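Two records follow; treat each independently.
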Amino acid sequence: MLVHLSKSEALHQLAAGFCVGTTTVWRYVRDITELLAEQVPPSNSNDA
């Protein structure tokens, strides 16, 4: 999914390619983004 998004494919193209609806693609994008965000170490505001 991320590879397709990095290629700037439209969501309706992703949906058709994966044989799912655009709502499902949006959910996948949201879920993947949340999973990736959890992997980012917390920032230290004193590092400026």
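The next record belongs to a different protein.
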Amino acid sequence: MRYYEIYSINSAVANDYFGRDEKLFQLFMEMKVTSDMKMQVILSRQIDYITTKISSIDVHECIHRHILNHPDQYRNKRWADNRLYDSEGFVNLYCYPNRILLEASGNGNQETGVFEALRSMDCYFLAIDCQKNCGGWLKPVKSVSLI
């Protein structure tokens, strides 16, 4: 089973940290491993400041459009989560106001499809692989040349 946490990063922060993604990743990982309550409060405030809220309704609509284009996948849904599955595996998607939790099983095609669907919804999603301790943009931020 593979686990990901997906955050919507504020566009100004995403552009400021272009090429320095590891700093954002480090912030989220530090929040996971710290046991100091004061530090958790500080890190939580920092994460709240750099992230934007995620609408579960928008996520549901996005996943619904994805399913319409992929008839080989099926969907079960409840208000706060989605389950996509096919003959080779499944993806569970849990929507919270500050993040999306994704757990996947199978050959990897399942989460790739969800990542592609979410990519069309927001340009600034940052996915964190909770098991491999790595992360990256679902749609990499492009640098802008000002010259």
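Discussion point: The helical segments are 11-16, 21-33, 37-50, 56-69, 109-121. How would you locate this feature using only the token line?
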